[in-house]
Amino acid sequence: MDAKDFDHWVDTSLSAFEAALDGLVPASAPAGLGEAMRYAVLGGGKRLRPLLVLASCAAVGGDRFAAMRAACAVELIHAYSLVHDDMPCMDNDVMRRGKPTTHVAFGEAQAMLAGDAMQALAFDVLTPDDGIAPALQARLCALLARSSGYDGMAGGQAIDLASIGKQLDECTLRDMHRRKTGVLLQASVVMGAACGPASAQATQALSEYGAALGLAFQVVDDILDVTQESHVLGKTAGKDQDANKPTYVSVLGLGAARTLAQDLRAQAKRALAATGLADVSHLSLLADSVVERVN
After folding, report:
1. What is the band of 166 on the pLDDT scale with cuts at 50, 70, 90?
2. Which keywords accompany this UniProt record (predicted)?
3. Torsion of CA 151, 157, 158, 160, to 10 degrees
4. 115-135 pLDDT, tens digit each
5. Domain 3-292 belongs to what architecture?
6. Averaged confidence pLDDT in the chain
């Protein structure tokens, strides 16, 4: 697959995804809550997690409706986590996706509620009255809950907050980012595979691909934090360094961090080769986009 075909797939997939997500996030939620939710999740972001769900589902010949619901649910969880992480009690950031963070735009209380509501909505989206078999609903809910809870994203954020000003070795740093960022990206891939008749071999290899990609994403994030400007990133550059947070750049150095990102991309592609699936080109090119991105 060439770059033009891949870009067309991305554009087509994201157009369908944005339409689906727009229809699922209610503007009618009371007292301005719907407006805050829609501000937080619509019209911005890389949408990497939804693309991973859809690409993985396509690779295993899965159910597109279930995968689109899973894609929306994952992005709702991701968006809720950003709203909460940006608040003054956590990372205290004022810019996200090139615009004021949700608590700056709507106030802290409304932002907290918007995050809470998006988290609940994610699981509502995965349990429609029809269209997804009950067993698959349960599987998708379990994958999403485990990746976003204490052993995943929330646990990683707790370690992150507890590590400010501390020296971490690479093993501890890797565990923190595996939980905070990597596990939800990995779950996106596995959720997509769960929507189709994936073999145990393919599912395991896709999970390994997702784990390598998730770590690569964070390594690149740490690199960009010190090499790009805020207007390119769409968020405050140099924030982790200013907050004295451990990163791959501070622990390994910039050159070694860049080498690690390339090694993780190669690891992800080896995992794809082990899936036994006929066409994993979308997933392979998504790995390239993660490592080569500039924001």
Report:
1. confident
2. Isoprene biosynthesis, Magnesium, Metal-binding, Transferase
3. 120
4. 999 999 999 999 999 999 999
5. Orthogonal Bundle (1.10)
6. 94
Q: Token pair of 79, please?
A: 């968006």
The two three-digit tokens of residue 260, written as one number = 């690690």
> What DSSP string describes 257-291?
HHHHHHHHHHHHHHHHHTS--S--HHHHHHHHHHH
What phi, psi does 196 have (nearest 5°)? -140, -175
Beta-carbon contacts of residue 11 (< 8 Å; ≥ 6 apart): none
What is the Cα–Cα distance from 217 to 114, expressed in whole angstroms?
Answer: 26
CA dihedral 247, 250, 254, 255 (to 10 degrees): -100
Quote the CA–CA distance of 158 and 176 in Å, as a whole number. Answer: 9
Residue with the two structure tokens 């699936």: 277
> How confident is the model at residue 237, as a pLDDT?
65
Residue 249: pLDDT band by 50, 70, 90 thresholds?
Answer: very high
Instruction: Please state, as a whole number, how many other Cβ atoms lie within 10 Å of the Cβ of residue 134.
Output: 8
**The two structure tokens encoding residue 244:** 């004295």
Q: Report how far apart, in Å, the C-alpha atoms of 55 and of each of 71, 132, 185, 206, 287 are.
A: 10, 19, 13, 11, 12
- The encoded tokens of residue 276 equal 């036994």
